[in-house]
Amino acid sequence: MLSRAGKEILIKAVAQAIPTYAMGCFDITKSLCDQISLMIARFWWGQQDNEHKIHWLSWERLVQPKEKGGLGFRDIHSFNLAMLAKQLPEYMEGRMDAKKLVEVGTWDEELVKEIFWEEDAELILSLTVHEGMNDIAAWHFDKHGLFSVKSAYKIHQDDMKRRITRGDPSSAAHDEEKTLVWKKLWKGRWTRKCKQVTEIWKELNLKQVRLELADKDSAMEIIRDLVKLNEDAQTMTQPNIKGAGQQCWKRPPENMLKLNCDGAYHATKSEGWGFVIRDDDGAVVKAGKVEHAQDVFQVELIACFQAVKYAMEIGVTNIIIESDSLMVKQAATSEAYRLSDFGGLIWELKDLLAMLMD
């Protein structure tokens, strides 16, 4: 007899892996996908031949990620569509021409809003127009701009979820809360299963807690209390060191300047950037506002770009650049984000840095 863990590994490594090649080539019918899922569900719940065992959770729940209360099994139909989507980048090559939407180095905002839906128009307008660069195909749903079956699968699953809930914001907020609870539950440090559980509760002076948990109305309430109990226990065992991890600004060496840049982003409010150029005596401060932005990474990039651009304009070369964004550093020193939504901005930033260093 296989344990639950053994069955999970067997399903993921064998049953759901065997049809992968076929799913990358053919659009398998929904009915066949449902049949495969039914066979896997029967195996999971221990059903054999003509037995009729109860499936305590729906298959839709089991295919949810573990951090959302499922077991991470694949939805066969969604995975089939994600595998077929690998052919999309090749199909899109040679079909892009954004020049008609550009007017004198910037987007023709009126035309963009006339052609595209409001949500898509905002995303387009948040991208900076870069003269002298050719259009390239990039995957918007990955921070590096690279397509992956994993991201395509997640998009289809999220889309199905939105269709079921019809975009209800209260449902989304509830899902976020449950996701946070499940993440903490999977990452928690729990005592192994033991026959003398009641005695252990007594030894740990948690008998009253056990009785309170037994009175809860739902499994989710029990999980929330267990997670909180685990967090409280970890807090009590961690030393309280004041100032740990804090860093103070340090003066630059003599005859050098230090440039600190930062960006601020809020999904429902305005975005902005700012930077400070200082020697060991004074400071030059400059700030600006971003009209359209997708996320904090873009605003951080704009802050760094504007700071370096200003340093070039005033003729500063002996300068140290500091940013609190690791992604900005990676973007400026590697090719990791070349195909991202902000690839053009990164290209211009690298160009300025190269001139600054010459």
From TrEMBL:
Q: Which Pfam families match?
A: RVT_3
Q: Which residues form a coiled coil?
A: none
The molecular function terms of the Gene Ontology recorded here are: nucleic acid binding; RNA-DNA hybrid ribonuclease activity
Per its UniProt record, what SUPFAM superfamilies does this chain match?
A: Ribonuclease H-like (SSF53098)
Q: Where is the RNase H type-1 domain?
A: 260-353
This protein is called RNase H type-1 domain-containing protein
